[in-house]
Design goal:
Helices cover 37% and strands 20% of the residues. The protein is of the alpha/beta class. It has a single domain, classed as Metal-dependent hydrolases (TIM Barrel, Alpha-Beta Barrel), CATH 3.20.20.140. It has a six-stranded mixed β-sheet with strand order 1-2-3-4-5-6. The chain has a two-stranded antiparallel ribbon with strand order 7-8. A hairpin with a 2-residue loop joins strand 2 and strand 3. Helix 1 crosses helix 2. The longest helix has 23 residues. The chain starts with 14 loop residues before the first helix and ends with a helix.
Length: 219
């Protein structure tokens, strides 16, 4: 329910490699949630063979990162949390807040914003495989339970090897209309990816920045 590809600025995973990893992990449905774009999800859907793709986006709002699922068009970054949520819902999408209690991310949604937006979100990520310590996920699960919010799990994979680290076992669904009902019956599963994945992500971000810089200088 939370993955990244070369369409994100901090991942160099080719879409074709991502598709192969999904099949190898025997995942039935994957949510493509690249940073501030739906292009990766659209390209992955073209390569999907044996699995389905939910088009999503991890949006950089002014109140922290917000995931939109079942999107038809991208939501702009740098809007308020309220406006970001409204634009997702306006196109029939679902709102998920990822890694809300993370200690190793600068752009996660802080507790005051989460409390303010709580009634407007559809689900909360209660297990993220890239969290630094398991207590972050435990805090998210406790918050979701206390406020009766549906929980999700995601690998937050930025490299193909991470795909399948976290997932939700849930009944099948026909589309966005009954997705939440199925998710409500789901069970979050997962294991932490370890601190090394963040080193790779910083390296990938640097390599992509270097590539863009070199390209601009040769024009």
């Amino acid at each position: 329910m939370h993955t990244h590809s070369e369409a994100s600025p901090d991942s160099r995973t080719p879409i074709a490699d991502q598709a192969r990893a999904v099949r190898a992990a025997r995942i039935d449905v994957i949510c493509a949630t690249d940073h501030n774009t739906i292009d990766g999800g659209l390209r992955l859907r073209e390569l999907a063979d044996g699995f389905r793709v939910v088009i999503g986006e991890e949006i950089s709002s002014r109140d922290g990162e917000i995931i939109g699922l079942f999107l038809d068009r991208a939501v702009p970054r740098d809007l308020s949390g309220e406006e970001t949520v409204a634009r997702i819902h306006d196109q029939g999408g679902l709102v998920v807040v990822p890694h809300p209690f993370s200690i190793n991310r600068r752009y996660h949604m802080r507790r005051p914003a989460l409390d303010r937006l709580r009634s407007q979100i559809d689900a909360l990520e209660i297990f993220n495989a890239r969290e630094a310590i398991f207590l972050n996920n435990r805090a998210a699960a406790a918050y979701a339970k206390a406020h009766h919010i549906i929980g999700t799990a995601g690998s937050d994979a930025h490299r193909a090897a991470e795909i399948g680290r976290a997932f939700v076992e849930m009944p099948d669904f026909a589309g966005r209309a009954d997705f939440l009902d199925s998710l409500r019956q789901g069970v979050a599963q997962g294991r932490l990816s370890g601190s090394g994945v963040h080193v790779f992500t910083r390296y990938d971000r640097f390599r992509k920045w270097l590539g863009r810089k070199s390209s601009s200088q040769t024009r």
